[in-house]
Task: inverse folding
């Protein structure tokens, strides 16, 4: 599912520079790359502007050069356009683009008027805050232009971390990525500033080590000779709080597994008729050799009984999803060698796992990667920006999911989906990526203000959307 596809890769600043240099070494000039980028971006600006007057804010580097190309394309098509350039171009390609632009160019923004602002002041690679002068100019122009478009990245954003280098940066209707996606396009807080995202290709090749965007999975319809065991038995270990395990079970029943069994002695008052309940002692229940994947954690609690149930689940050495309380109770020495594990922590649980595995890293992305390597597990670090990290260094990033998911119980639903996908045959990394997409798609189909119960029931619709 995650073969390197150029329009799905997410590059660091260093990777993007190397990719551009590879194009130059192969015979493409910097000026030609600037034309590809600027003309591609101009198409999106043309659509958004829809005949309205445009102001292009150009900086001194190649991002400013892209702005001059955009402005000239719009001018040649008859659109009212003006450039504001507080600093003269400094790179050869930007100088050439400035000479090719035949329209109005202002050195200050006080006389600029229009409806659409195109921000080409500073793009990717910025590591320090905007100067007071440039920050004031950007804010003033943004205030006077109701529609705002950023080219490559909004000025004042750190590319790899998504940090905002200045306070009070404007919001944008559209951000046009050039060449490849950057981490800031999908990392908070920068992502919240960018509006819609569009990508303009300039010929950048696939980078083997690049992170990838999580894309819609291709889920096969069961074969004509399929039966419940061929599609996978997913066992969910219940605990002291039965509601969470029931939510996970309901999601798992709709995410592809052929058979979902809840191993529990504490049961809610009502249960779905299609959910099989096994109230045998856990050690006995786990001896079923047909179990293809386990889920433990939702509703487990953190007492001695919970510790015993977690130990029993880990000892049976089945491919497993560990969630919720299981992540807090987990001891590194309890993981079995050569067993596929997927852990699904939110930020607090990620901190607990990092302490347990002696991992020190500055943010969710780097913690997920370091934890995956240290623990040998696939890490699904869930949150407003979600990452899936594998022990071999692979990294997948989720496009934004509906913020309506911020309600109790949705994490249990995600865990149930992931366990079901593992039982159905997906490896831990693929199952995590599939689960993230299906979780978000179920929320998109529901619309606003749903419960975790409703989300679990909506998984069937998400699966339908992903079927080949």
Result:
């Amino acid at each position: 599912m995650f073969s390197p596809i150029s329009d799905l890769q997410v590059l660091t600043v260093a990777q993007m520079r190397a990719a551009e240099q590879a194009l130059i070494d192969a015979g493409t000039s910097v000026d030609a790359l600037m034309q590809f980028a600027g003309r591609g971006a101009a198409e999106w600006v043309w659509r958004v502007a829809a005949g309205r007057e445009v102001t292009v804010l150009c900086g001194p580097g190649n991002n400013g050069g892209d702005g001059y190309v955009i402005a000239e394309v719009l001018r040649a098509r008859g659109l009212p356009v003006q450039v504001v350039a507080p600093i003269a171009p400094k790179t050869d390609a930007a100088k050439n683009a400035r000479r090719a632009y035949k329209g109005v160019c202002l050195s200050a923004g006080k006389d600029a008027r229009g409806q659409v602002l195109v921000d080409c002041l500073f793009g990717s690679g910025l590591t320090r805050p905007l100067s007071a002068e440039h920050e004031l100019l950007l804010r003033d122009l943004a205030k006077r232009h109701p529609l705002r478009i950023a080219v490559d990245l909004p000025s004042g954003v750190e590319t790899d971390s998504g940090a905002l280098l200045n306070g009070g940066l404007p919001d944008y209707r559209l951000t046009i990525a050039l060449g490849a996606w950057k981490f800031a396009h999908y990392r908070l807080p920068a992502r919240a500033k960018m509006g819609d995202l569009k990508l303009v290709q300039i010929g950048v090749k696939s980078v083997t080590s690049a992170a990838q965007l999580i894309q819609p999975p291709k889920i096969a319809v069961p074969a004509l000779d399929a039966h419940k065991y061929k599609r996978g038995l997913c066992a969910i270990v219940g605990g002291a709080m039965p509601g969470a395990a029931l939510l996970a079970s309901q999601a798992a029943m709709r995410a592809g597994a052929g058979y979902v069994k809840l191993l529990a002695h504490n049961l809610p008052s009502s249960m779905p008729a299609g959910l099989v309940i096994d109230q045998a002692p856990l050690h006995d229940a786990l001896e079923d050799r047909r179990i293809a994947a386990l889920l433990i954690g939702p509703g487990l609690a953190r007492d001695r009984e919970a510790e015993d149930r977690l130990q029993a689940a880990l000892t049976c050495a089945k491919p497993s999803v560990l969630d919720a309380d299981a992540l807090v109770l987990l001891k590194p020495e309890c993981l079995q060698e050569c067993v596929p594990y997927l852990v699904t922590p939110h930020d607090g649980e990620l901190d607990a796992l990092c302490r347990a595995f002696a991992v020190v890293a500055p943010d969710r992305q780097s913690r997920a990667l370091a934890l995956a390597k240290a623990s040998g597990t696939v890490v699904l670090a869930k949150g407003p920006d979600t990452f899936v990290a594998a022990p071999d260094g692979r990294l997948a990033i989720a496009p934004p999911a509906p913020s309506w998911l911020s309600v109790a119980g949705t994490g249990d639903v995600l865990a149930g989906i992931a366990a079901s996908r593992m039982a159905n045959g997906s490896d831990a990394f693929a199952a995590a990526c599939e689960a993230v997409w299906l979780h978000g798609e179920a929320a998109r189909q529901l619309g606003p203000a749903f419960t975790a119960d409703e989300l679990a029931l909506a998984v069937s619709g998400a699966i339908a959307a992903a079927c080949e």
